[in-house]
Amino acid sequence: MEAATVAAVLGFLLLAAAGRSAGDEAREAAAVRALVARLLGPGPAAAFSVSVERALAPESGLDTYRLSGGGAGARVRVLGSTGVAAAAGLHRYLRDFCGCHVAWSGSQLRLPEPLPACTSHASTRRYRYYQNVCTHSYSFVWWDWARWERELDWMALNGINLALAWSGQEAIWQRVYLALGLTQSEIDEYFTGPAFLAWGRMGNLHTWGGPLPRSWHLKQLYLQHRILDRMRSFGMIPVLPAFAGHVPKALTRVFPQVNVTQLGSWGHFNCSYSCSFLLAPEDPLFPIIGSLFLRELTKEFGTDHIYGADTFNEMQPPSSEPSYLAAATASVYQAMITVDPDAVWLLQGWLFQHQPEFWGPAQVTAVLGAVPRGRLLVLDLFAESQPVYIRTASFHGQPFIWCMLHNFGGNHGLFGALEAVNRGPAAARLFPNSTMAGTGMAPEGIGQNEMVYALMAELGWRKDPVADLEAWVSSSAARRYGVTHKDTEAAWRLLLRSVYNCSGEACSGHNRSPLVRRPSLQMATAVWYNRSDVFEAWRLLLTAAPTLAASPSFRYDLLDVTRQAAQELVSLYYEEARAAYLNKELVPLLRAAGRLVYELLPALDKVLASDRRFLLGSWLEQARAAAVSEAEARFYEQNSRYQLTLWGPEGNILDYANKQLAGLVADYYAPRWGLFMEMLVESLAQGIPFQQHQFDKNAFQLEQAFVFSTQRYPSQPQGDTVDLAKKLFLKYYPRLVAGSL
């Protein structure tokens, strides 16, 4: 593609940012000043002067910030071309000049006195995108406004200027479906429960975990208004949902002649909960429903002209004919521009990566070519591992955002491909005729591996990769803890070369450790790193504990590495138990089983219980707090328990969203492991083959009992993280060194 054409395509996308008037400058500056006060407190915030001036950007559409002042009692001046740019500049000052740190788990904000003098300037044309459709279910689902406010502050500080805003859409759909003639009971039957709405929105599921209470719709409408107001006050561009073509089965009752196709099943669900109905692109109802929804949505929430829709997410289209795929794509876009002539469609590019055998060159070209160039913005969702832009000639001229997906299911587990993340965006920009329009973070779940997201956010403002990742993680650790320490630096260098050094297409941030899986004799335990690096990093962090124990971020990291070490130990004990069983050695089997089930797992649960961020009670309490009655609280809690474990009524996507939480380890993983070891011992003692099928049936009874349980769990931490981590270390590390667990 000619360079001029590429520039024109990217230029169209900049219209959304350029269209913000100078009259918004004061509002955006006020929003950032309020952020500074929330972050630092009113006193320290007075030392900062924040202004927003569109003219600061050398070109229309650029995001630019400039830092100056400070030193000898002078105020630090933060100037941005948008509110987001000013917030990103503030974060840059706190990080690089003051040695501070802002993260999901907490912040380290000890400001030096006087504030350091500074001169810094940065510009970027690129979008900085955030979220995955799944994040709304795996992480955001039970949030109240207070938690959303903290997240929006984090987004602004990290320079995010494009993000999904999908709360409350079911309330809008309810209005549309009622207007079309569906009954309230038909609508209630269609919507999934709160913990599974992401997959209802993408057409993968319906009904499962529902219905949605009336109070849910009211709360989500309220939240969406507050979220949008805050996003717009920062100068962020919210991405609203649009009609993708999926409809309730009940539509066929109201319109018997409607042309719909029932798609195949998804995620091992039967058609009671999947096999969604897809409206034919040529059916007259398609533009009617699409425009009804978008008109009602924008009447309620306004618009910033970018909309998300995913018609074939992890679902094979009914035809591979390019003409059909082009028509299906065009019909979605036409419904958008009928209501909003300036509409731009944000498409998750996951479908091309997830089913490459279906999405050949002709099929991909049909979809990408069905929307005018510059009106389709594609998220290359898993670009750090399996970039699609390379095999599609930069998405055939459509602009795309290079995204780091990183996490699946919101799992705990130290993981990262930092080298690929570091090099990937620059490589995409240099790709021949690249139409890369920005960088993004698109995890399925958040609240883990914070170092990875700190790097990705920083890359959104860099033209080149970080030159020395070892030095970068060392300085990042110093900012996290508020002090430089040789042992923590050494620990992070070990983690960088091990758990954060995954490479190749096999890399996936989905924790498949035996700890969090239903046991069998066929489980894989191989990892891409040397486990001894994790154990040594564990030792080094504990060595630093007497100096750093007062740092909340240090305590969080110590617990997370201790949790990872315990996860590695589970794999090693499993290997011992399996080898003993296969060698018909009863005593070694009993020894390994006893140590795993009765010593290691209870000790892990106890360590996790020392931090509120690793409590099942906190997780479930979020769900209960969203309710307006006890019955509703029980319903939300069961939704949450299902998502963490069985995921479906029959374990359809079993343990996909696994977490390592105090209470979940003790009452879900440990009993399952105990049952497995008990049946292995019985099998060996009686000289009969292990019956995996029977174990699976028995395990399902345990798993289901956990989901239906009403046991309440502590939502406040118990015990001291450092002491408990040290006890675990002193018990197991000498055995590791001696080579005999």
Automatic annotation (TrEMBL):
<dbReference type="Pfam" id="PF05089">
    <property type="entry name" value="NAGLU"/>
</dbReference>
<dbReference type="GO" id="GO:0035909">
    <property type="term" value="P:aorta morphogenesis"/>
</dbReference>
<dbReference type="InterPro" id="IPR024733">
    <property type="entry name" value="NAGLU_tim-barrel"/>
</dbReference>
<dbReference type="GO" id="GO:0042445">
    <property type="term" value="P:hormone metabolic process"/>
</dbReference>
<dbReference type="GO" id="GO:0007030">
    <property type="term" value="P:Golgi organization"/>
</dbReference>
<dbReference type="GO" id="GO:0032496">
    <property type="term" value="P:response to lipopolysaccharide"/>
</dbReference>
<dbReference type="GO" id="GO:0004561">
    <property type="term" value="F:alpha-N-acetylglucosaminidase activity"/>
</dbReference>
<dbReference type="GO" id="GO:0043161">
    <property type="term" value="P:proteasome-mediated ubiquitin-dependent protein catabolic process"/>
</dbReference>
<feature type="domain" description="Alpha-N-acetylglucosaminidase N-terminal">
    <location>
        <begin position="30"/>
        <end position="117"/>
    </location>
</feature>
<dbReference type="GO" id="GO:0031069">
    <property type="term" value="P:hair follicle morphogenesis"/>
</dbReference>
<dbReference type="GO" id="GO:0003183">
    <property type="term" value="P:mitral valve morphogenesis"/>
</dbReference>
<dbReference type="GO" id="GO:0021680">
    <property type="term" value="P:cerebellar Purkinje cell layer development"/>
</dbReference>
<dbReference type="GO" id="GO:0042982">
    <property type="term" value="P:amyloid precursor protein metabolic process"/>
</dbReference>
<comment type="similarity">
    <text>Belongs to the glycosyl hydrolase 89 family.</text>
</comment>
<dbReference type="GO" id="GO:0070062">
    <property type="term" value="C:extracellular exosome"/>
</dbReference>
<keyword id="KW-0326">Glycosidase</keyword>
<dbReference type="GO" id="GO:0001573">
    <property type="term" value="P:ganglioside metabolic process"/>
</dbReference>
<dbReference type="GO" id="GO:0097696">
    <property type="term" value="P:cell surface receptor signaling pathway via STAT"/>
</dbReference>
<dbReference type="GO" id="GO:0060173">
    <property type="term" value="P:limb development"/>
</dbReference>
<dbReference type="GO" id="GO:0006801">
    <property type="term" value="P:superoxide metabolic process"/>
</dbReference>
<dbReference type="InterPro" id="IPR017853">
    <property type="entry name" value="GH"/>
</dbReference>
<dbReference type="GO" id="GO:0016485">
    <property type="term" value="P:protein processing"/>
</dbReference>
<dbReference type="GO" id="GO:0045475">
    <property type="term" value="P:locomotor rhythm"/>
</dbReference>
<dbReference type="InterPro" id="IPR007781">
    <property type="entry name" value="NAGLU"/>
</dbReference>
<dbReference type="GO" id="GO:0030534">
    <property type="term" value="P:adult behavior"/>
</dbReference>
<dbReference type="GO" id="GO:0061744">
    <property type="term" value="P:motor behavior"/>
</dbReference>
<dbReference type="GO" id="GO:1904389">
    <property type="term" value="P:rod bipolar cell differentiation"/>
</dbReference>
<keyword id="KW-0378">Hydrolase</keyword>
<dbReference type="GO" id="GO:0006914">
    <property type="term" value="P:autophagy"/>
</dbReference>
<dbReference type="GO" id="GO:0042474">
    <property type="term" value="P:middle ear morphogenesis"/>
</dbReference>
<dbReference type="GO" id="GO:0140315">
    <property type="term" value="F:iron ion sequestering activity"/>
</dbReference>
<dbReference type="GO" id="GO:0035640">
    <property type="term" value="P:exploration behavior"/>
</dbReference>
<dbReference type="GO" id="GO:0034142">
    <property type="term" value="P:toll-like receptor 4 signaling pathway"/>
</dbReference>
<dbReference type="GO" id="GO:0016020">
    <property type="term" value="C:membrane"/>
</dbReference>
<dbReference type="InterPro" id="IPR024240">
    <property type="entry name" value="NAGLU_N"/>
</dbReference>
<keyword id="KW-0732">Signal</keyword>
<dbReference type="GO" id="GO:1904390">
    <property type="term" value="P:cone retinal bipolar cell differentiation"/>
</dbReference>
<dbReference type="GO" id="GO:0001889">
    <property type="term" value="P:liver development"/>
</dbReference>
<dbReference type="GO" id="GO:0016042">
    <property type="term" value="P:lipid catabolic process"/>
</dbReference>
<dbReference type="GO" id="GO:0001774">
    <property type="term" value="P:microglial cell activation"/>
</dbReference>
<dbReference type="GO" id="GO:0030202">
    <property type="term" value="P:heparin proteoglycan metabolic process"/>
</dbReference>
<dbReference type="GO" id="GO:0007028">
    <property type="term" value="P:cytoplasm organization"/>
</dbReference>
